[in-house]
Design brief:
226 residues, alpha/beta, single chain
Amino acid sequence: MKNRIPTYGSKWHLFRYLGYHRAALDRHIEDKIRGQNIRWVDFHFDPQADFLDAERKGLDFLADDLPVQEAWKDFWPQTGNVPNWDAVGWIHVGSQPEVLLVEAKSHPREVISKCGAKEAGGLNSIKAALEQAKAAFGVPAHHDWLKPYYQYCNRLAVLYFLVKNNIAARLLFIYFLGDRIPNCECSKDEAGWDATLQQMYAHIGLTGKSALEGRIHTLFLPVCPP
């Protein structure tokens, strides 16, 4: 069948949970964050995209007329590959609604990435933003956030920026267990992810001690629970 949708990978399994198992997904997340009443933000329609949908990018889940939008333009370059999100929602933690930004992975190799921005483009702005974020997370400046875990690090930078600008926010990293990607040995349990994630945390310089790190959550989610 031409253009058959692959039934594996983090995008597919997150779609499944959001579409067919949303109550279970919400329960897992609410237990992890100790929040309640998740409200998911719809994606955009996009007739040019393969799935006819476009992920949320940058801060387009916030109103355009908020002051934070102008500050965002100064903080992060608006051209090139602006951070995009696998899912965005709002979750109540206590009585306060907070932004929930989701990144999902199905295989340990997916955590590897490097910054592709050029000196003539937005690289200098990205470097400056990452340095600010590192300082806020208590990470020494010598830790390299441009590679090989750039995607994870730019998510940390967005979290730092939002909290700095009085937008309560949380990052949720979902790591799927037991995916069936062809010719690929996917992690079947948390232990299968552990070495990859510990290596990433050590490279980035996270220690678990900063207040911002309390806003980062990790959820291991079976693609098909027993």
